[in-house]
């Protein structure tokens, strides 16, 4: 499964629609696999579901960090950038910690993206492992 180039998306209603499509894809993956798999398995299957839904994405996107004029290109990598608008971070752990939300929030700020999804597949019901974070500019 190869990562594909993406085109930019639009306003908030488009982001809501897009996040609902990605959540639907994640629910399908969780329904099929359940909890207990490795994070890499969920990522691969989620990418397949995004393709089925016709959604463009990039994976392992480098997030540059600028500190005192110096750019570090490979310091951070986000899991998925869907339609160049929605950041998706995939986890497979017993429970999400505040640091995971902070990680997604950092990605949003550094990329100027407005919305992100934190998906933890290691839960009996996916809605219990889902967090949606929105930045208002």
Key words describing this protein structure:
5 strands; 137 residues; globular
Topology diagram in text:
Elements: H1 12-33, H2 39-52, E1 57-67, E2 70-82, E3 86-91, H3 98-111, E4 115-120, E5 130-134
Parallel strand pairs: 3-4
Antiparallel strand pairs: 1-2, 2-3, 4-5
Provide the number of structural domains. 1
User: Helix/strand-derived class?
Assistant: alpha+beta
The percent range for helix content is: 25-40%
Total beta strand runs: 5
Rounded mean pLDDT score? 90
Strand content: 25-35%
Query: How is the biggest beta sheet arranged?
Result: 5 strands, mixed
Overall radius of gyration? 14 Å
Give, in order, the helices and strands. Answer: HHEEEHEE
The end-to-end span amounts to 34 Å
The number of helical runs is 3
Low-confidence stretches: 4-10
The coarse overall form would be globular
Report strand order across the widest sheet: 1-2-3-4-5
Describe the overall structure:
The chain is an alpha+beta fold and 137 residues long. The protein has one domain. 36% of the residues lie in helices and 30% in strands. The chain has a 5-stranded mixed β-sheet, sandwiched between helices. Helix 1 packs across helix 2. The longest helix has 22 residues. 28% of the residues are buried. About 5% of the residues have low confidence.
What's this entry about, in short?
This protein is 36% helix and 30% strand.
